[in-house]
Amino acid sequence: MEVKKICCIGAGYVGGPTCSVIAYKCPDIIVTVVDLNKDRINAWNSKDLPIYEPGLQEIVEERRGKNLFFSTNIDDAIISADLIFISVNTPTKTYGVGKGRAADLKYVESCARHIAEVATGFKIVVEKSTVPVRAAASISNILSSNTKSNSSFQVLSNPEFLAEGTAVTNLIDPDRVLIGGETSVEGQAAIEALSNVYSKWVARDRIIKTNTWSSELSKLAANAFLAQRISSINSMSAICEATGADVTEVANAVGRDSRIGNKFLQASIGFGGSCFQKDVLNLVYLCEALNLPEVANYWQQVIEINNYQRRRFANQIIGSLYNTVYGKQIALLGFAFKKDTGDTRESSAIYVAKYLMDEGAHLKIFDPKVPRKQIITELQHPTITDCPEKARELIEVSGDPYTACAGSHAIAVCTEWDQFKLLDFKKIYDSMLKPAFVFDGRGILPHQKLLDIGFKVSVIGKHRENGGMFKSASSNNILLPSSRVLP
Ligand code: NAI
């Protein structure tokens, strides 16, 4: 069959960009992205898209109203579609069995039930959300148990591998597209139909076809491997700081081995985002459910190192500021979980801010893409503070980096925004209290320049002699040893 109309349920970070690119690359296919959230749909139909991704605005403006539509009319979009993507959120469960680890599939299930209720004729239902292995079987089960005499379905798994911040590039030129389906004739025909959509712009040899379970597990495995690499280099950063090795040099030397490769070896304050932690936890839970405790423990360590790294960075700041940040002003540069996105879900900056607020620090926060309200909402969340009013008193959101830094004791770089590298650091230094500290949690600033200006500089994964400073040959900006080991 030929796919002529696509419906995508879920107009989020995945559904929105993915379907915009499909519409852009396939002008003959009508693509309708639907969501229960009216505000989000209104934003997709406005000049202010609900998410920021480089290049997305142009693509949406080019196709919107032609073959790309955003709507809250879910029923109509389902009824007229040949193929339906389920692209709704699958957060970690916050209640009941598997709380804190298992993926919450209530939104996926509700989509499946809704499709079964309103669809007529034959539909290909594509699981785009990241789900535990065998979720497609549950969707199939719900659909077949509720199928009316005039409808039938084939369920495929087509996980999304885009990375936020580079979503459009990733979608236009993907490393691979993965499609899993049943081995039956009907299943293979459905795989072929979806494959024909992607092949309008993706080379056929990049379209991988597997059975459904391999496809579902591959997505969890890919995210677990990526998260594991970050935890691996971050674990090395702790050894570097304690020994005199430099994590950038280690990463370069290790990454030059072609078997290892040089990507994803940047030490940092830990990974964030809505996916890595959720998907690794999901994998851990799956292993436990399958009675594979050794495998579960192995992957759990990826999360433990990530938590350790966030805590370690905050402790480094506290230790360097003479073991107290109470009443001190600290500028946080960056709040998004990575550069080129306004997404703050599970951002490491949230945890660094939390640990500093727990010690009574005043935070002045600047991020080029995260709105003030979003920063405050994140830091007033019950998992971050049990006293939202107190948190509110400790936070100030600044409109530019210079205001954030003025009057501060220290700067902590939490997101690797390119613009931070080009700041006027002399101007910043002059506006800060002395000694003026910089804690570079992303290793992006011009460290020698900062040292020459007079900053005390601490960089993740660089040797921290005498209590916590990055030691430069030309600098004597070295701190006294910390006297207290923080928890
Ligand atoms: P999101 O939270 O940004 O968007 C999900 C959207 O689904 C929301 O707008 C919500 O209102 C809507 N929704 C939920 N239930 C609905 C229903 N029954 N009917 C209509 N709309 C409904 O989530 P995001 O980030 O787009 O993620 C979606 C899935 O894709 C998740 O499973 C995630 O793990 C996966 N994924 C996310 C990536 C990312 O970079 N954010 C990358 C790859 C996969």
UniProtKB/TrEMBL annotation:
GO terms for biological process: determination of left/right symmetry; glycosaminoglycan biosynthetic process; heart development; positive regulation of canonical Wnt signaling pathway; positive regulation of smoothened signaling pathway; UDP-glucuronate biosynthetic process. The lineage of its organism: Eukaryota, Metazoa, Chordata, Tunicata, Ascidiacea. Involved in the biosynthesis of glycosaminoglycans; hyaluronan, chondroitin sulfate, and heparan sulfate. Belongs to the UDP-glucose/GDP-mannose dehydrogenase family. NAD(+) binds at residues 10-15, 35, 40, 88-92, 129-130, 164, 275-278, 345. GO terms for molecular function: NAD binding; UDP-glucose 6-dehydrogenase activity. Residues 331-447 form the UDP-glucose/GDP-mannose dehydrogenase C-terminal domain. Its EC number is 1.1.1.22. Homohexamer. It catalyses: UDP-alpha-D-glucose + 2 NAD(+) + H2O = UDP-alpha-D-glucuronate + 2 NADH + 3 H(+). Pfam families: UDPG_MGDP_dh (PF00984), UDPG_MGDP_dh_C (PF03720), UDPG_MGDP_dh_N (PF03721). The active site is at C275 (nucleophile). Pathway: Nucleotide-sugar biosynthesis; UDP-alpha-D-glucuronate biosynthesis; UDP-alpha-D-glucuronate from UDP-alpha-D-glucose: step 1/1. Gene3D superfamilies: Cytochrome c1, transmembrane anchor, C-terminal (1.20.5.100), NAD(P)-binding Rossmann-like Domain (3.40.50.720). It is an enzyme of class 1 (oxidoreductase). Keywords: NAD, Oxidoreductase. The keyword NAD applies. This is UDP-glucose 6-dehydrogenase. GO terms for cellular component: nucleus. It comes from the Eukaryota. The keyword Oxidoreductase applies.
